Amino acid sequence: MKAEQIRHIGVVGGGVMGGGIAQIHAAAGYRVTIRDISQQILDDTREALIEGKWGVKRAVEKGKMGFDTATQVIANVDFTLEIEGLGDCDLIIEAVPEKLELKQQVFAELDAVVKADAIFTSNTSGIVIQEIAGKVSEQRKQQFVGMHFSNPVPVMSMCEIITTPQSTEETVDAVVFVANAAKRAVCMVRDTPGTRGFILNRVFAAAAREARQIVEDGIATPEDVDKAMITGRNWPAGFFGARGGIGKQW
Ligand SMILES: NC(=O)c1ccc[n+]([C@@H]2O[C@H](COP(=O)([O-])OP(=O)(O)OC[C@H]3O[C@@H](n4cnc5c(N)ncnc54)[C@H](O)[C@@H]3O)[C@@H](O)[C@H]2O)c1
């Protein structure tokens, strides 16, 4: 599937991440169908898309989105409980809970239903993409990459694109194109069996380990570790819940 052939995106799992992922792609002009197994989740996600903290209504009020784009986002997003509703999608972005067996099963079902040339991607936080793709056909493995967004998706522009040795150049180019269209900061990552997480979560986990070690060794208090990172590196928050800013001297 070439980039310019992609028109219809299927988002599987309409929870915290799926709703945001649908919103940014609908804003980029794609038709988006969200599939979940819960009607309540679909209703809540529709509500959040329009009225939520990161929804289009507030974005228009804050001057971050034009009224026409907001109207387009709402019109571009459909909701379904049926997997068959994704049959003619060109690109699938999976955002079901972080369990390998569940993701493998979801992709095996999608493989049987979604058209053969469609691209499959997973928003896993850290599972090896080749394992998630373990139960799809050999052809689909070539059309499979990771697409890891950061929460809240409408606000955080990062998108790690994780490529496997099987991912074709055409597939990677198409996914990079779509991510750019959705105004993402694309960070390329090589899928690596035996590791957990890509760039963002590995670097953060390493920093968190150091922070805990500093406290355990009695070198500094949790508050002072947080204070150092917030005031010295401009991090929005530390590791231990201490916050600077309004009402604090630091
Ligand atoms: N929440 C975050 O901050 C964050 C950030 C980056 C990546 N992720 C990753 O994104 C994925 C989803 O996380 P989330 O926080 O959105 O989870 P969530 O629990 O909010 O949403 C998951 C949704 O998937 C639905 N679901 C379960 N089985 C399904 C199926 N078979 N078909 C369709 N829908 C199904 C659930 O009903 C639920 O609405 C996970 O892999 C997670 O690691 C999460």
Describe this structure in words.
It is a single chain. The protein is built from ten helices and eight strands. It is of the alpha/beta class. It folds into two domains: 3-190, NAD(P)-binding Rossmann-like Domain (Rossmann fold), CATH 3.40.50.720; 199-233, no CATH class. An eight-stranded mixed β-sheet has the order 3-2-1-4-5-6-7-8. Helix 1 (16-27) packs across helix 2 (39-51) and helix 1 (16-27) crosses helix 4 (67-76). The N and C termini lie far apart (52 Å). The structure holds nicotinamide-adenine-dinucleotide. Residues 12-18, 35-38, 41, 95-98, 106, 123-125, 149, 151 line the site of nicotinamide-adenine-dinucleotide.
Q: Numbering strands along the chain, what is their spatial order in the largest sheet?
A: 3-2-1-4-5-6-7-8
Care to count the β-strands?
Answer: 8
Instruction: Note the overall shape.
Output: globular
Summarize the amount of helix as a percent range: 40-55%
Small molecules in complex:
nicotinamide-adenine-dinucleotide
Derived structural class: alpha/beta
Q: Sheet with the most strands?
A: 8 strands, mixed
What is this structure, in a nutshell?
The protein has ten helices and eight strands.
Descriptors:
single chain; alpha/beta; Rossmann fold; 2 domains; 10 helices; binds nicotinamide-adenine-dinucleotide
